[in-house]
Write a structure and sequence with these properties.
globular, single chain, three-stranded parallel β-sheet, alpha/beta
């Protein structure tokens, strides 16, 4: 009888240990980026990211990160989410983020960045009949921006402004067209896309007229993951060297 009890107890313990082992393995697989790179983006920032005709995220950044994935031998899985939640999601919901994201000191407190892959500058979208022309003209206005972007950081520093932040830049542009905003501050390339879409209603003014400084886009990475950072940086360098990067610029940005 004692032997039977001991055998049952041992079997139970082995079963528990086996289940615990399976649980640990499953958890490790969830956080394992050896095979799949889970990439966060905000598909509302054309031409860098937008929803394609097939309903999936597309754009320059999407094409670039997929090319990076091929270089480093990883499948890329895209997660479309709010821009303002991208940085805080790295290391939990996503592995990295690419979303026309500017390298800033504030963001570097939370994440690391790859080497820069694009230089950009903000632009100002105004109604066709607007008299806005320089930095002084922006004071005391109602300005639309995309939440968590450089445009919001800039607008917050302008004297007397009322800042309206939106999850999607296109929503700010729509409110501008409907007379609810005086202007919208957004990155140059998306601004030019909106300017083309609504050419009869808005003008796009260059950021240099407002003393905006250039900024640099990069891929946001987990803190201190040097192995992943080195792989991604090497891939970006190779894509620039073999002509892939220039082809993507022509396809998604210049055209």
């Amino acid at each position: 009888m004692k032997k039977k009890i001991i055998s049952v107890v041992l079997a139970s313990l082995l079963t528990v240990a086996s289940l615990a082992g399976c649980g640990s393995a499953a958890k490790a697989d969830t956080n394992n980026t050896n095979g799949t790179l889970v990439v966060g983006t905000n598909a509302a920032f054309p031409p860098f990211e937008y929803v394609g005709d097939d309903g999936e995220p597309d754009g320059f950044d999407m094409a670039l990160i997929k090319a990076v994935g091929e270089k480093i031998g990883m499948d890329v899985q895209i997660q479309d989410m709010e821009f303002d939640s991208l940085v805080s999601s790295i290391g939990s919901k996503i592995d990295v983020a690419i979303a026309g994201m500017t390298v800033t000191e504030e963001r570097q407190k939370t994440v690391d960045f790859s080497e820069s892959y694009y230089e950009a500058v903000q632009a100002v979208i105004v109604p066709k009949d607007s008299a806005i022309a320089n930095a002084d003209d922006l004071k005391n206005l109602t300005i639309g921006v995309q939440l968590g972007t450089t445009g919001e950081f800039i607008a917050d520093e302008i004297e007397g402004v009322n800042v309206s932040a939106y999850n999607k830049a296109v929503d700010a542009v729509n409110d501008l067209i409907n007379g609810r905003l005086d202007c919208v501050i957004v990155d140059k390339n998306p601004a030019e896309v909106f300017g083309t879409q609504y050419s009869d209603k808005v003008n796009v003014l260059p950021g240099t007229d407002f003393d905006f400084e250039p900024e640099f886009y990069a891929i946001a990475l987990p803190k201190r993951n040097t192995e992943l950072a080195n792989k991604i940086n090497t891939a970006i360098q190779e894509l620039k060297a073999d002509g892939t990067y220039d082809n993507l610029v022509k396809e998604y940005i210049e055209e």
